[in-house]
Description:
The protein has four helices and ten strands; from the N terminus they run H-H-E-E-H-H-E-E-E-E-E-E-E-E. The protein is α+β, with helices and mostly antiparallel strands and 233 residues long. Helix 2 (38-47) crosses helix 3 and helix 3 packs across helix 4.
Amino acid sequence: MRTRHIDLALRACLTLCVLVLGVIVCNPKIAKASDLSLEEARDYLTSYSDVSTNVKGQEVFAEYSFASDEDLNAVAEFVSENGIEALNAAIDDAVQKDEMILAPFKLERTVSPSDVTKYISGNGTHNVSGQSYGLADFGKYGTGEYRVVLGYRVVVSGGQMTSIDSTSFDIPSITRSCTWGNLRLPNYVRASVCGVTANYDVTKTIEIPIGDASFELKSIVDNEIFTVTTYLS
C-alpha cells in the first residue's frame, strides 16, 4: 500500500511538472528573460530593420543606430539579460515621451498637408507660393509636425501658360526630433493650369536610454506630398 502511495505521488509530481513546463513554453513572459547570447543580441541590434504601413498607406522604415561600440555592447548586454520585450518597452516609453511634446499642438494640424490652389491673370511673370501644415505619421513610432512652403514662377504669354521656373521649397519649422530630405519636385504646364508637387521624406530620430547607454531609433516616412496648383483666369 505504501509503495502504491509513493507511485501515485510521483505521478502527480510528474504531471505538475509537465503542466508547469507547458505554461512556461507557451508564455514567453514566464520563460527566462532572454534566450539570446551577447553576440546574438549584438547581431539583432545591428541588423534590425522594420517596414510597416501607416494609416495613410505609406511605408514606414525603421532601424537602430549606435554612436559607439560601447553603447552597442551595453544595450546588447541589456537585451541578453532582459530580453527583446524589455527593449521594446523602453522604446515604447521613449516614443510616448516624445509624443507628449506634440500633444498641445495636434488640434491645429492635419494628417496631410492641404494642397493649395492659386489663380493668376494676364500675360507676364507671376510669382506663386503656398504653405500648409502636415503631420507625418510614423505608425507605432509616433508622429512629427511640420510647416511646408512651396513657390515658383509662372510665365504667361499670348494668353497661355508657357513655363515654370525658380521653384523653391522649404520646411521652416518641424518637430525637434524630425528632419526632412530626398526632395523631388516634378511639375507640369498646360495652357490654363500648371502645378508643382513636392515629394519628400521625413525622418524621426528618438534617443532610447538604456541605463548609462543609449541608441537612436530612426524611422522614415516615405514620400510626403504637398502640391501648389495655379489656374489662369
